[in-house]
Amino acid sequence: MKIAIFDYLVTPTNPAGSCHRALIDALADEHDFTVFSNRLDNPTPRKIRWNSVPVIRRPLAALFLTFHVSAVLSYLRVRWRNDTFALIQSVESNFAFADIVYSHFCHRWFLKHHWKECRVGGLRGIFRWIDHALHALAEPWVLRHARWIGTLQRRAVHHLQQSQHQGDDQPVVARAGLSVGTPVAKEGAVAPA
């Protein structure tokens, strides 16, 4: 299967990127991966293709915006060459057209419930809030259009469902380790495996 991965940094030191790196390393013999990222520590260069996505790295809000634009342009360039993918996976709301969204965090929930406790001041705090706000603006659209949403924590499942007002027709939210098709109870609890 041809799979595209969209992530800022696919490196061992990046939390989400290290998971994507482990995934492509483990499955490179079974699937054809193309990674769209700004940096890739490629565990299997002969088997994994890389499309470098140019970005502005700081502030994080600029990274988010430039990745969205550059990733879409890189994807369209690949599609122009008639290269298609059976599956597209992205981290959080970092790419608008993913089949699978791998989420560590719900930015909408965080801004609503915890931002005031952070006490990050000055320009850094302003840019940090803008980054979260941009993610929060993109989350509803990205998550609504995904076929599956995966996360590592039960709490994140609850936050994503609560913030996105998931209905029966929404994508399945599954905690890692569960079958992707595992139904999720209405209250936000993960159904037993």
- DSSP strand content: 15-25%
Q: Uncertain spans, ≥5 residues at pLDDT below 50?
A: 177-193
**Number of discrete helical segments:** 6
Radius of gyration: 17 Å
Tally of separate domains: 1
Question: Strands across the major sheet, in which order?
Answer: 5-3-1-6-7-8-9
End-to-end separation in angstroms reads 26 Å
Q: Might you state the CATH topology name?
A: Rossmann fold
**Shape, principal axes of CA atoms:** globular
Provide the residue-averaged pLDDT.
83
CATH level-1 class: Alpha Beta
The helix/strand order is EEHEEEHEEHHHEHE
Helix content: 40-55%
Helix and strand content put the structural class at alpha/beta
Biggest beta-sheet profile: 7 strands, parallel
Please count the beta strands (DSSP E, at least 2 residues each): 9
The named CATH superfamily: Glycogen Phosphorylase B
By CATH, the architecture is named: 3-Layer(aba) Sandwich
Short structural summary:
The chain contains six helices and nine strands; from the N terminus they run E-E-H-E-E-E-H-E-E-H-H-H-E-H-E. Helix 6 links the parallel strand 8 and strand 9 (172-175).
